[in-house]
Amino acid sequence: MTGDVTINPDAGCLVMTTEILRSMLYRGSEVMREVAWVIFDEVHYMRDKERGVVWEETIILLPDKVHYVFLSATIPNAMEFAEWICKIHSQPCHVVYTNFRPTPLQHYLFPANGDGIHLVVDEKSTFREENFQRAMASISNNQGDDPSSTNSRGKKGQTYKGGNKDSKSDIYKIVKMVWIKKFNPVIVFSFSKRDCESLALKMSKLDFNTEEERETLTKIFNNAINILPENDRELPQIKHILPLLRRGIGIHHSGLLPILKEIIEILFQEGLLKVLFATETFSIGLNMPAKTVVFTSVRKWDGKGFRWVSGGEYIQMSGRAGRRGLDDRGIVIMMIDEKMEPQVAKGMVKGEADRLDSAFHLGYNMILNLMRVEGVSPEFMLEHSFYQFQNAASVPILEKKLNEIEEQLSNIKVEDEATVRDYYDIRKQLDTYNGDVRHIITHPAHVLSFLQPGRLLKVKVGQFDYGWGVVINFEKRSNKRNKSETYTDHQAYIVDVLVNTMFADAPVNLIKPFNPNFPEGIRPAKSDEKSKTCVIPITLDSIQEIGNLRLYMPKIIKTDQVKDTVAKSLQEALRRLVDGVPTLDPVENMKIDDNDFKTLLKKIEVLESKLFSNPLAQSPRLAELYDEYSKKVALSEDAKTLKAKILEAQAVIQLDDLRHRKRVLRRLGFTTANDVIELKGRVACEISSGDELLLTELIFNGNFNELTPAQCAALLSCFVFQERSKEAPRLKPELAEPLKHMQEMASKIAKVSKESKIEIVEKDYVESFRSELMEVVYEWCRGATFTQICKMTDVYEGSLIRTFKRLEEMLRQMVVAAKTIGNVELEEKMEKATELVHRDIVSAGSLYL
């Protein structure tokens, strides 16, 4: 049972999608009363950002009397998942797992432009370090010195991305070697549809099939294609792929027509395809093992940037190597064309599967359905979610930490605590006031005229205290790269100061806050370290004190010799000043004449006399007691933070989001002030394939009333098409007008959401409804052939079919929505649109059914 095919709904064992099961639970279907067991296959789908929440909802909504089986090859935290099931369904859940693999795997590396493969993990799962190093060394020999550096071009066609233009000939070498060594069938994984196709075409010289195999293959292919209408059999994708398949080479990615994907799967299972170029989707949910798996790259684009393949993804794909009962071992070959840290490689080939973490998030359809069903509520769903369970799981760890801290606190006994507390509070207040004074003194208006070369300054950069240093010069900062960025007064000047630092070869700019990725540069030398005189750039807020003293300075301070001379005279001056360096008086010397500043100085005076009269001030144990009490205060702060974290983990997460979403529903008239569902809300319950709020508003606003069935289908395509397309075509007036009205309504919803405190960017929300296929859908509904509409867009054929299937699903939901409000005209219009969409290749059934 799927969205568009139901074969025998009264059978004793039903196979269905999770979405169908969820819908049955919300509708209170008869079937649910008779269910004894539910088997969830590939339950790690629950971590999927889009669909994972459907699995979670379904598991929570199922009755406690039902028993469950959850299957997955990749859940390292299965115990945590089982605990959650026990908690929400009050029944034991056993974890049965094995690390045994019937056919062990060998992992090889093939360095770009290399001439052979290196075994890095053998069948006993041992990592062969020396082979790994050998493979890495051959990369650097073949390419420039640093292939992954952004500005280098290596010796052999190395681009700045670390990719290699010769990788196609490398694949050719690998496939040929696999064939010679009889390691076929082989699946070659690539992370882009375009690469799958171009790599397959590169194999045009190779032929892996006998004449007999070619004939059998052609027969199967033609029989399968015959279920399509005649004109669809002539589609370029279908005509172009047969010559490739006849030579035993296949392609499998989501851009292929569904019927072609199924034909290729059947041919691969029958052993008529020896090499298959596939994207990651081939490794999920299909049981199609091969003897060898090849990775053309171990970096993938995840929508934000390129990253290494995760351990879980690698396990899923490499797991296709090795056929049970046929092969004594499976072979995995990774092509690498850039320096890869051994840690990354080990993490990948010996890595753990990705954890199953909840992807639970609230949706309006879910909230409305839960309001409608008796005995459950949105709050119930939040409390029982795996998301909530995982958060609450941190409570015992936090509580343990809290107990440890409280025990430490109970062991700290500060002698005469009241006096020490009094002293501590005054000193902290003094530190604050002194900081305020320093902030005023070091303001450019007051300090710049005193920063002459030779002036003594006490310098502290972040945590690093350099003590006294000597001013070399200062200058105003200019940001050439970003003109619009402005600096605060204290950050607007750079002062070069000569200080004593650890022995470092090159001074690294210390203005770390402006570049957090900077390595830890220079720091003061520790007492037992070799030190060096360095000139470091500091901003004004790193000045602690300004000395009332200047040293004689040479004109040019470039050489180490001159720097050392200045450092020596600084040391000499500090040795002579037994009572410390005299500092500039802010009022007398710096002439700061400001009433607030004078008040601040008076406050400091009062506090200093209070501090001095405290009995502790004269005590020889001052430092010891002060440190002891400081430790107690710090621990108390930690305890307070942990208590807040525990409360947060125990509270129902996403409750605020639920409140905000309920407010949106009330404001748009989907529910009453008492959270009782209105007619609008009941309509939205029927829509789960697209934005239920916007679609319901369009129905109630009469936006579909004046449209033809073909226009309705075209407008609804904006809700189901999610891929990127190069450009949106200029729309005809009959499509542009409905689109404009829909976007205005989307803006209205975004504004209400914003007012209800939901984080939403209006522009992004409106643009999430993609109009690129409106024209295509419109022409299809008006009778255009599939070949004609393919010429109108750069979207892959398979993606078009998928969009049409989703559109059919949405139109069926719109029919039910129209029934709910008794709008017969709209119901008939949507049924007509469904008929217009469901024809020819779009209506072709699956070969598996």
Outline of the structure:
It comes from Cyberlindnera jadinii (strain ATCC 18201 / CBS 1600 / BCRC 20928 / JCM 3617 / NBRC 0987 / NRRL Y-1542). The protein has 849 residues and is an alpha/beta fold.
Quick tags:
849 residues, alpha/beta, Rossmann fold, 5 domains, 7-stranded mixed beta sheet, 5-stranded antiparallel beta sheet, globular, P-loop_NTPase, ATP-binding, RNA binding
Describe this structure in words.
With 849 residues, the protein is of the alpha/beta class. The chain folds into 5 domains: 1-100, Rossmann fold; 105-125 and 164-349, Rossmann fold, CATH 3.40.50; 366-407 and 622-649, no CATH class; 442-584, Elongation Factor Tu (Ef-tu), domain 3 (Beta Barrel), CATH 2.40.30.300; 657-843, Orthogonal Bundle (Sec63 N-terminal domain-like fold). Helix content is 45%, strand content 11%. The chain has 31 helices and 16 strands. The protein has a 7-stranded mixed β-sheet, sandwiched between helices. The chain has a 5-stranded antiparallel β-sheet with strand order 15-14-13-12-16, covered by helices on one side. A hairpin with a 4-residue loop joins strand 9 (299-301) and strand 10. Helix 16 (395-411) runs antiparallel to helix 21 (622-650), helix 17 (417-441) packs across helix 21 and helix 25 packs antiparallel against helix 28 (774-781). The longest helix is centred in the C-terminal third of the chain and has 29 residues, at 622-650. The radius of gyration is 36 Å and the shape is globular. Mean pLDDT is 86; it is low at 144-165 and 504-520. Residues 1-93 form the Helicase ATP-binding domain. It is found in: Nucleus.
